[in-house]
């Protein structure tokens, strides 16, 4: 009888109920809220769902992220090995290849002025960098945190790893992906505040047709120019443009389909769950994390505002030919930010179609955020 009692006692005490802290329960509630946003509200479910589930797993079973050195048998937790691929910058680079294979750069080629809007939206990154330093973060940590303003999760992870800020990678990545998912909530109030009804109703002329030759030359030229100036951007910009060359060349359809489908989704699963698994209560519930989340929001808001302001300036310069709303799409959340520009414009005039015009600044923002990351690495001699 004592054997049975002892066995049952051991089994009961091995359940998670006896090992979780209040912080773990709080993070489980946050994970469930993120799952609700992903499933019910469909806010970037491709990213938010695996991140939320990784968050759920690590707060129920922390050993799923166990370091091999802390394991009795020398074998780490499952998601620890996934996370190593983040630290080594493998998954972020592969994500960029998949994004390139899925992206049509035609709107950007047809309207090169979109580069200005994409660059303007990176302003929030540099504002957040200086604010982070004032809040007590060192220069490298400030740079890693500020890149959240580009609303580009893979670049945030990439830069944090390159700058040796792996301790902050979890909160940075979760903040970046969360803001990407919350673009439809965060951006519209800023866009409406900074534009007039008349500006939001501006209809833009149809984009000119882009030739196949232009689309083929674009990734080659961008790779040469950007990587010659900032060689440290090669893992991101190079993979982005390689994926796009798969798409536009038309001679490697199998590679394009693999990069944009099977590989992309596998990488998203690995990256999302491993990023979510960095949010254990012990690592996430602290003052630094709250500062990172706040700085990310500041960077994102300033980036959106800067894009709209430059859009307003171009609207004046072109005598009303550019709708300022497309400037908000200069952040890197592709294609969500472009859809938000379309949605806000359509609210004023249902016949106004801004999506393709907004895609120009949107994809320019992807390049711009990678360039911002490369600039920080160059500054710190990485």
Gist?
The protein is mainly α and 382 residues long. The chain is 71% helix and 0% strand. The chain has 20 helices and no strands.
Structural description of this entry:
There is one protein chain. Helices cover 71% and strands 0% of the residues. The chain is mainly alpha-helical. The protein is globular and about 85 Å long. The relative contact order is 0.18.
**The biggest beta sheet, please?**
none
Number of helices: 20
Low-confidence stretches: none
- Separation, N- and C-terminal Cα atoms: 65 Å
- Output the structural class: mainly alpha
Q: Beta-strand percentage? A: under 5%
In round numbers, the mean pLDDT is: 89
The coarse silhouette is globular
What descriptive keywords fit this protein?
mainly alpha; about 375 residues; 20 helices
Question: What topology emerges from the helices and strands here?
Answer:
Blueprint lengths: L1 H12 L8 H18 L5 H16 L17 H10 L2 H13 L3 H5 L3 H7 L2 H12 L4 H8 L6 H10 L3 H16 L1 H11 L3 H4 L11 H18 L4 H16 L3 H24 L4 H4 L2 H31 L18 H13 L6 H25 L3
């Amino acid at each position: 009888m004592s054997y049975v009692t002892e066995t049952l006692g051991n089994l009961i005490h091995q359940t998670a109920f006896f090992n979780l802290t209040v912080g773990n329960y709080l993070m489980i509630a946050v994970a469930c809220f993120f799952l609700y946003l992903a499933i019910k509200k469909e806010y970037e479910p491709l990213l938010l769902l695996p991140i939320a589930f990784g968050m759920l797993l690590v707060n129920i079973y922390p050993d799923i992220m166990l370091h091999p050195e802390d394991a009795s048998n020398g074998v780490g937790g499952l998601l620890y090995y996934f996370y190593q691929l983040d630290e080594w910058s493998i998954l972020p680079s592969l994500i960029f290849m998949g994004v390139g294979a899925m992206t049509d750069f035609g709107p950007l080629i047809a309207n090169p002025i979109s580069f200005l809007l994409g660059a303007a939206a990176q302003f929030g990154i540099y504002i957040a960098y200086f604010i982070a330093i004032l809040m007590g973060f060192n220069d490298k940590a400030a740079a890693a945190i500020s890149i959240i303003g580009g609303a580009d999760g893979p670049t945030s992870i990439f830069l944090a790893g390159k700058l040796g800020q792996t301790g902050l990678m979890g909160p940075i990545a979760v903040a970046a992906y969360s803001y990407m998912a919350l673009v439809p909530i965060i951006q519209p109030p800023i866009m409406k505040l900074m534009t007039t009804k008349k500006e939001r109703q501006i209809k833009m002329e149809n984009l000119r047709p882009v030739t196949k030759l232009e689309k083929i030359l674009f990734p080659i030229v961008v790779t040469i120019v950007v990587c010659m100036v900032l060689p440290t951007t090669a893992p991101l910009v190079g993979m982005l443009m390689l994926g796009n060359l798969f798409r536009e060349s038309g001679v490697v359809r199998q590679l394009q389909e693999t990069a944009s489908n099977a590989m992309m989704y596998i990488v998203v699963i690995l990256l999302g769950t491993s990023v979510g698994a960095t949010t254990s209560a012990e690592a996430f519930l602290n003052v630094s994390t709250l500062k990172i989340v706040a700085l990310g929001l500041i960077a994102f808001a300033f980036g959106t505002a800067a894009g709209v302001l430059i859009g307003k300036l171009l609207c004046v310069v072109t005598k009303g030919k550019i709708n300022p709303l497309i400037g908000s799409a200069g952040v890197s959340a592709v294609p969500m930010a472009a859809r938000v520009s379309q949605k806000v414009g359509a609210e004023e005039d249902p016949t106004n179609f801004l999506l393709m015009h907004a895609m120009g600044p949107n994809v320019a923002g992807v390049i711009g955020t990678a360039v911002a990351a490369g600039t920080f690495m160059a500054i710190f001699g990485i």
